[in-house]
Amino acid sequence: MRLTTKGRYAVTAMLDLAIHAQSGPVSLNDISGRQGISLSYLEQLFAKLRRGGLVASVRGPGGGYRLSRDSSEINVAEVVDAVNESMDATRCHRRGDCQDGEECLTHHLWLELSDQIHAFLHGITLAQLIQRKEIRSTADRQDSIARNRIDAVLSTDDVTG
Amino acid sequence: MRLTTKGRYAVTAMLDLAIHAQSGPVSLNDISGRQGISLSYLEQLFAKLRRGGLVASVRGPGGGYRLSRDSSEINVAEVVDAVNESMDATRCHRRGDCQDGEECLTHHLWLELSDQIHAFLHGITLAQLIQRKEIRSTADRQDSIARNRIDAVLSTDDVTG
DNA sequence: GTATATCCGACTATTTCAGTCAACTTTAGA
DNA sequence: TCTAAAGTTGACTGAAATAGTCGGATATAC
Ligand code: FES
Ligand code: FES
Fold first, then answer.
1. Atom of ligand 1 nearest to the CA of A91
2. Mutation to test the A interface, candidates B35, B76, B104, B129, most A Cβ within 10 Å
3. Which long-range contacts (CB under 8 A, 24 or more apart) does B141-147 make?
4. Which uninterrupted H or E stretch holds B56?
5. Model confidence band, residue B161 (pLDDT cutoffs 50, 70, 90)
């Protein structure tokens, strides 16, 4: 079992997508700027998210990514899964055969843990998350920082160029 | 967050210890034979378990390891923790500072997941586990295989030596 | 004193993560 | 039609962790 930056970034990026959905496709460049994730790395992640059927792409200028389903129909477990981070805690991938084809002493324990984790992550949709006030305020902060950065670049251009 | 063979082996070995506690100290050699874990690797793990205060050692012939507390006072979370496999799902180690010193979008989500996992693992003691019938029967199977192996070695010695 | 055990440190092969880089295709808009 | 903005793809990398192995040192029951 493993949850690393890869899976966390994937959920973060999907949330960013859900939050900014109303203004058309969202470019990876925007997500990169707001969430502090490298553009190249995002490209890798979105290749998997697209293959997993979670997002659809729009190429060309003004393009980007859209959720392929409503945010209320996408849960966190799916997102983590799509980038190949299995939340399965067993060693045998639920087969019960990790000691000479038989169950090891701890098989049932890890099975139950897996079910707990899966139930938790499966029960939370992107739509639910973006309703939360702590997430809304974090998103607002990120948006205003992004706007300031654009303003700063523009005024620097005015002065130096 | 990470749960790999290291943490699983640690729990397996501690369970084996708890099951065979009544017959004095248990040697790593016995655990290795019953659980199919390499002796050298077990030595590494038990060094950490000992440093973590979960087991005590008895050196010399007939020696081995004992639980340093009653099996009802040792929970699974402690064991996994002792071998340095953190079940913390956050990126910031609960500090809430993983994006420029501020909370990232998903901080609270991972915090809640961490709490779920910890509550689950913390709530299960070794004593509870060795009461379970599926674990008892697995342990019985392992014991009889180990006995057969010893018998086979002895009779082979009789024939060839 | 010897066999049995724990202790300890160094070593290694493999895998994954986290990220970079270069080159390519598609397409909106001037 | 040209260009720049975007996605698409594959190869590459450094660092870290995993899952061990190996050799030897130390303690101790018999
Ligand atoms: S974890 Fe399933 S058999 Fe060991
Ligand atoms: S996970 Fe805690 S701030 Fe990002």
1. 1
2. B104
3. B141/A102, B142/A105, B142/B34, B142/B35, B143/B34, B145/B34, B146/B30, B146/B33, B146/B34
4. strand B55-58
5. very low
Residue B147 neighbours by CB distance under 10 Å: 10
> What mean pLDDT is predicted for residues A95-118?
96
H/E segment holding residue A66 = strand A64-67
Tokens of residue B50, six digits: 């000992």
- B69 token code pair: 């507390």
Which ligand gives the minimal distance to the CA of B135? 1
Instruction: Determine if ligand 2 sits within 6 Å of the CB of residue B113.
Output: no
* Bridge partners for B67 per DSSP: B55
Residue whose entry in the numeric block shows the structure tokens 């992004």? A146
Maximal CA-CA distance, chain A: 73
Tokens for A161, please give them: 């160029």
pTM for the structure as a whole: 0.93
